[in-house]
Design brief:
By secondary structure, the protein is an alpha/beta fold. The protein contains 15 helices and 19 strands. Bound molecules: flavin-adenine dinucleotide.
C-alpha cells in the first residue's frame, strides 16, 4: 500500500485525502493549526466562498456535492448598489440552473475532514507546522520536532507554502517563482441576520466605486459577510482610515445604504485584519515523484472570479484521473498533471485579475451593463452560447485556457456592438450568434 504525506488540512488537502483514501492509499495529513472541530482557530476571516461547477464536480466524485449544496445559498446574479442607493440585478446567466453558491469555508473544511476520517487509512495530525522538506531523502520536518516520510508528499499548505519555499531555496534548480501583490487589500465586515433581511438573499451584492468596491455574500443564518477591497495606500486607502470619524466619513460618502445594515461596522473595521491579495506563479510543481505542489501553494490567485478553491478542487480531480491512468507511478502522474494544469491555472490567474477591474468599474458602466443584457438574451435563445463568465464558472468540461481565449474574443465583439447600439432590443441576435460561432480558438 502506498503512503502519501499531505501538508495542510485546508480545503484542497482535506478533499485530496478523501480521493486518495478511496483508492486504498494511506494518508497522513499534517496541519499547522489546531483542529477547527474542537477549537476556534484563526482560519482567516474569509467566512464564506462562492462554490461553482468545477468545485461541485470534484465534490460529486466523492459523494459530497449534495451534502454541501444543502447548506449553500444560491446566488443568481450580481446585485449592483449604485451610489444613489438604487439596485439592479445582473444575472450570471440567462439559463436556469446556472448560478453560484455561497458556502461556509469552515463548514466545508470540517465536512471534508469528517468524511476523510471515515477511512481507516487517513490520519490527521494537528499543530504540526511544516518547516522544511529534504528533496533528497523526502523527509518533512515540523516545528514540534516531528518528522514524516511517505512514498510521496503533496503540499496543499496554501499561498504561503513552506514546501514551496523549500523548492525555491535549493530543492529545485532553476525554480521559477513570482509573487505579484495587488495594490488593494481586503477587510471583512458583517451584516447580522436582523438587517440582512433588507437585502435580496439570493445574490452576490456589489457596491462598485471604481477605485474600490465592497461585496457581500449571504450566509446560511441570514447574515452576510462583506468584503471591502481598497488600496493599501493613497488618498482613498486603508492607511487613511485610521480612526472612527474617517471610517464613518468614508462609508457615509461611498456606501450610505450599507451603514444601517452594519451595526458593528466600527468594531469590525478595527478588529478584523487587513488582508493582502496577490498572484503566485511557480514552476516546476514537482520534484520527480517525491513531491508535488497543489492548490494555492502552486498557484494562488486573487479572489475576483471566485475560482481559487474551485480551481484547487479541480486540481484534485485531475490528479485523481491521472492516478487512475498511471497508478502510483508518482513521477509520471506529476509530470503529466503539471503539463495539463499549468496552462489552465495561468489562465484563471490572469482572468481573476481582469475581473477585479470588471467588478469595480465595468459593472457600473452602461456599455458593460448592455453587454450583460445582450449576453443574457443570447443565453436564453441559443443553447450553445456561453459568456466568458459562464464558461469559467458553469463549464466544468471546458479548460480555463479555452474559456479565456474564446471569452476574450467574444467580449471584444460584444463590447463593440454594445458601444454602437444603446437599445439592445434592436439588435439581430441571429446574426450576432453567427459571428460568435465563427470565432475559433
Ligand atoms: C478574501 C478571499 C475570498 C475568496 N473567495 C473565494 C471564492 O469565493 N471562491 C473560491 O473558489 N475561492 C475563493 N478564495 C480562494 C480560496 O480561499 C483558496 O483558493 C483556497 O482556500 C485554496 O485552498 P488550499 O487548500 O490550496 O489552501 P488553504 O485553504 O489556504 O489551506 C492551506 C492549509 O494549510 C495549512 N498550512 C499552512 N502552512 C502550513 C505549514 N507550514 N504546515 C502545515 N500546514 C500549513 C493552513 O493552516 C491551511 O489549513 C478566496 C480567497 C480570499 C483570500
Amino acid at each position: 500500500m502506498s503512503k502519501v504525506v499531505i501538508i495542510g488540512a485546508g480545503l484542497a488537502g482535506s478533499l485530496l485525502a478523501i480521493y486518495l483514501a478511496k483508492r486504498g492509499i494511506a494518508v497522513d495529513v499534517y496541519e499547522a493549526r489546531g483542529d477547527m472541530r474542537l477549537e476556534e482557530v484563526a482560519a482567516g476571516r474569509s467566512i464564506n466562498l462562492a462554490l461553482s461547477d468545477r468545485g461541485i464536480a470534484a465534490l460529486r466524485e466523492v459523494g459530497m456535492d449534495e451534502y454541501m449544496l444543502a447548506e449553500a445559498i444560491p446566488m443568481y446574479g450580481r446585485m449592483i448598489h449604485s451610489e444613489a442607493g438604487e439596485t439592479r440585478l445582473l444575472p450570471y446567466s440567462g439559463r436556469k440552473g446556472e448560478y453560484i453558491n455561497s458556502v461556509s469555508r469552515g463548514g466545508l473544511n470540517i465536512a471534508l475532514m469528517n468524511e476523510a476520517e471515515k477511512y481507516p487509512g487517513v490520519r490527521f495530525h494537528f499543530n504540526c507546522r511544516c518547516t522544511g522538506f529534504d528533496s533528497l531523502t523526502g523527509d518533512v520536518r515540523f516545528t514540534n520536532g516531528v518528522t514524516a516520510t511517505g512514498d510521496t508528499l503533496i503540499a496543499t499548505d496554501g499561498a504561503g507554502s513552506a514546501v514551496r519555499d523549500a523548492f525555491l531555496h535549493g530543492g529545485v534548480e532553476r525554480f521559477d517563482f513570482s509573487q505579484v501583490w495587488l495594490e488593494h487589500g481586503y477587510k471583512e465586515l458583517h451584516i447580522p441576520p436582523s438587517s440582512g433581511s433588507d437585502l435580496e438573499r439570493d445574490a452576490l451584492h456589489i457596491w462598485p466605486r471604481h477605485q474600490f468596491m465592497m461585496i457581500a455574500l449571504p450566509n446560511f443564518d441570514g447574515s452576510y459577510t462583506c468584503t471591502l477591497f481598497l488600496a493599501h495606500r493613497g488618498e482613498k486607502s486603508f492607511e487613511n482610515l485610521g480612526d472612527e470619524p474617517s471610517v464613518m466619513h468614508f462609508f457615509t460618502e461611498n456606501f450610505p445604504d450599507a451603514i444601517p445594515l452594519m451595526p458593528t461596522l466600527i468594531e469590525d473595521f478595527f478588529h478584523n485584519p487587513t488582508g493582502n491579495l496577490g498572484t503566485i506563479k511557480c514552476f516546476p510543481w514537482n520534484i520527480g515523484g517525491k513531491a508535488l505542489l497543489l492548490g494555492d501553494s502552486a498557484h494562488a490567485v486573487v479572489p475576483f472570479y471566485g475560482q481559487g478553491m474551485n480551481c484547487a478542487f479541480e486540481d484534485v480531480r485531475v490528479l485523481d484521473q491521472l492516478i487512475d491512468k498511471h497508478s502510483t507511478d508518482w513521477e509520471t502522474v506529476y509530470e503529466e498533471y503539471s503539463e495539463l494544469r499549468k496552462l489552465n491555472t495561468d489562465a484563471i490567474a490572469d482572468m481573476a485579475e481582469e475581473n477585479f477591474y470588471e467588478m469595480r468599474d465595468a459593472v457600473a458602466d452602461p456599455v458593460f451593463v448592455r453587454k450583460r443584457q445582450l449576453e443574457t438574451s443570447l443565453e436564453q435563445t441559443f443553447p450553445d452560447y456561453f459568456s466568458k463568465y459562464s464558461m469559467v464558472t458553469f463549464r466544468e468540461d471546458l479548460p480555463y485556457s479555452v474559456a479565456k481565449e474564446k471569452g476574450n474574443a467574444q467580449d471584444r465583439l460584444l463590447m463593440e456592438i454594445c458601444s454602437q447600439e444603446e437599445n439592445i432590443e434592436r439588435l439581430d441576435l441571429n446574426s450576432i450568434m453567427e459571428r460568435i460561432r465563427q470565432i475559433s480558438v
